[in-house]
Specification:
It is built from three helices and twelve strands, in the order αβββββαβαββββββ.
Length: 163
């Protein structure tokens, strides 16, 4: 006999999940000549061989279906000074790239200037997981500047690491 597991309160889940700090990444590409992107705090490394990273995207995202059509996708690990960029990319309207400095790789990945690191990727696999999809991305190129402090998301706020 299978016993039903009681549903957990979403507010309580968000509260507890928010206790775990994470970095913030801009995930972007050029699609039909225009930059398309989202902010992700669910970004993490996955594998060294082959080189893979992942992020989670809600099924309710209107941007991911457009972004996923790109050949290459840029992941910019946002710096502590890029909280405005994170808010813009997480927003639901307007020009998400207004007043942001960015560049495009040879393959169409959009990378934000001033980020503490960047990774050029392509979609390796998408896995349906509850109300999100886990997106596995293959790494093609990357670089980082450890002298630039990263932006951190904790308890539903953008924060800076302190020395």
């Amino acid at each position: 006999m299978v016993t039903a597991v009681p549903a957990l309160d979403p507010t309580r889940l968000r509260h507890v999940f928010g206790a775990f700090p994470s970095g913030v990444a801009a995930v972007a590409a050029l699609v039909d000549g225009a930059p398309v992107g989202i902010a992700a705090s669910s970004f993490t490394s996955v594998s060294m061989e082959p080189p893979l990273v992942s992020l989670c995207v809600a099924h309710t995202s209107n941007t991911w279906p457009v972004l996923r059509s790109a050949t290459r996708i840029g992941v910019s690990i946002l710096s502590a000074d890029q909280d405005r960029a994170a808010r813009q990319l997480a927003g639901r309207g307007g020009d998400r790239f207004a007043e942001l400095r960015w560049r495009v790789s040879e393959h169409g990945a959009v990378l934000l200037d001033g980020a503490s690191g960047w990774i050029e990727t392509s979609i390796e696999q998408e896995v349906r997981a509850g109300d999100h999809d886990v997106i596995l991305l293959r790494v093609h190129d990357l670089d980082a500047d450890h002298g630039i402090s990263p932006l951190v998301f904790h308890a539903s706020q953008f924060r800076r690491l302190e020395a």
